[in-house]
Description:
By secondary structure, this protein is of the alpha+beta class. It has one domain (5-122, 178-315): 4-Layer Sandwich (Glutamine Phosphoribosylpyrophosphate, subunit 1, domain 1), CATH 3.60.20.30. It is built from eight helices and twelve strands. It has helices at residues 13-25, 30-42, 87-97, 105-114, 125-137, 237-240, 245-254, 259-273; strands at 5-9, 64-71, 74-81, 102-104, 184-189, 195-201, 222-225, 229-235, 282-287, 293-297, 304-307, 312-315. An eight-stranded mixed β-sheet has the order 4-3-2-6-5-1-11-12. Helix 1 packs antiparallel against helix 2 and helix 7 (245-254) crosses helix 8 (259-273). The longest helix is centred in the C-terminal third of the chain and has 15 residues, at 259-273. It starts with a strand and ends in an 8-residue tail after the last strand. Bound molecules: N-hydroxy-L-asparagine. Residues 49, 181-183, 201, 203-204, 213-215, 221, 234-237 line the site of N-hydroxy-L-asparagine (SD4). N-hydroxy-L-asparagine binds next to strand 8.
Amino acid sequence: MGEPILLTTWAFGQAANAVAWPGLLAGGDGLDAVEAVCRHVELDEAVESVGLGGLPDAEGQVTLDGCVMRGPARCGSVCSMSFCPHPVSVARRVMEESAHVMLAGPGADAFSAAQGFEAGVVLSEWARARWAEWRARLPSPFPPTAPSTLGGPSGPPVGDARPAYNPANVSSPASDAARSHDTVAVLALDAAGNLSGGCSTSGMAWKLPGRVGDSPLIGHGLYVHPAHGAAAATGKGELVMGLCSSFDAVERMRSGASPREALGGALGRIREEHDLAADDQVAMIALSPHGEWAGAALRPDYRSALRTTTRDEVVPPDPVLCA
Ligand code: SD4
């Protein structure tokens, strides 16, 4: 039996790791640990781009994404679901109980209902208030409408004569949304030596309806290969999605790079290929099958949460590519 490790994005990962750690330490499966970490964050209303605390899209609808992965032939994903606040668990069920890898939107919601997940609140009062403030600042004619807090479509009331929301008037997320970079991604090495990964997000605040980021896309927001390593990303998905950054990092590990070198290489490609804005952030974590780990970022305002048999810490990124 080897030593287990949990590596989670952002400082809030420390409290989430604490929930999953006893089971992992006792020899539990890493997939249970990553699901427990994500579920803890999904219910934390203070985390504004995951689960219940997640900020909605431009129309006030929260859409949640998540995935889990154990290897190329064992992964599951959901995107744009609004039925319950636990996309990570629904993604795991897609992997274990369906013939597919990814379900989207109404299909993901129908699947989760059929699997017995309870419909739950996915838009907190706080997130609803933030959305209403943001929407009120938009140029007329876009007065706030009332999004629902329960799963399901939440557009303007039937019969509302106000002009429809026009995506052309919201060309990019508001700058305050750029701060909402706090997707939970978690990598685990269990005592049996299995690598597992999971992630969960509500995506970018005030996004255009229908936008999906990197997090639920296998190879982009998360990639796990049992023999070569695991990697995950958080931050602005649009910077990751053209580069398959998690897959890129694991491929570098396959070629002999350490997790730190692999993340430096993958983030370096993001820096090379994009004309980065000052607040553009992507952070990544990586874990090898032998327990070597790293957390790295484009900008310094990122932290990883590490739990091992000897450490329970929030650690700064290394390397930082755009200090
Ligand atoms: C996305 N990567 O939807 C996610 C958001 C995120 O930390 O990670 N925020 O683009």
